[in-house]
Amino acid sequence: MSEIDPIKRRFAELDIAYAQEVARHKEALDAIKAETEELRVAQRVLARLTGRPASEEGGNDYFGKMPNRGMTTPEYIIEILKVHGRSPFGLSPKLITNHINEKWPQANIQPIAVSTTCWRMVQDGRLEKIGALYRLPKKKAADPTSVEDGSAAPDSLDTQAREGGAGGGT
């Protein structure tokens, strides 16, 4: 038996304990998600039977009277950028955070979480970064002026504005 064997054994014990805790928490989260979905179904049925919109019952509608606990930070970011990120430039992590916390106040998302998640989403190709701003990626087929780095191609500039109006020339 070498001197490192007790350390290896302890690492193995910790790996097992960690996996058990993850499984326990996953089971609890799955139960919460299942109950949340059951409540959403009940809310829709009740709304249909009473003829009132589901949001009047105080539930989770699109504008988020309650947070959608099933959503992840990337999902929040994508939802906000779908609504507010239509400009050609995008939004800063601070603005994304503000919009998330306005729409889902109980989510209590912190700016650092949004900032790091946006950066990871850029690395995964799910977002584009322009300076300090983030936006949803443009469709390559729909925008022939986009190039790999996300900036506009030089020939996409407005030639009338560059050349002094109609007729061009300098």
Describe the structure.
With 170 residues, the chain is mainly alpha-helical. The chain has two domains: 5-57; 73-140, Arc Repressor Mutant, subunit A, CATH 1.10.10.10. The protein has helices spanning 5-50, 73-84, 93-103, 111-123, 159-162; strands at 128-130, 133-135. A two-stranded antiparallel sheet has the order 1-2. Helix 3 (93-103) crosses helix 4. It is flat and about 70 Å long. The N and C termini lie far apart (85 Å). The model is unreliable at 56-68 and 142-166 (pLDDT under 50).
Brief descriptors of the model:
single chain; 170 residues; mainly alpha; Arc Repressor Mutant, subunit A; two-stranded antiparallel sheet; 5 helices; 2 strands; 4% strand
* CATH class bucket of the largest domain: Mainly Alpha
Q: Find the CATH superfamily of the largest domain.
A: Winged helix-like DNA-binding domain superfamily/Winged helix DNA-binding domain
In total, the number of domains comes to 2
Which ranges are low-confidence, i.e. pLDDT below 50, for 5 or more consecutive residues? 56-68, 142-166
Layout of helices and strands:
Elements (H helix, E strand, L loop, with lengths): L4 H46 L22 H12 L8 H11 L7 H13 L4 E3 L2 E3 L23 H4 L8
Antiparallel strand pairs: 1-2
Helix pairs in contact: 2-3, 3-4
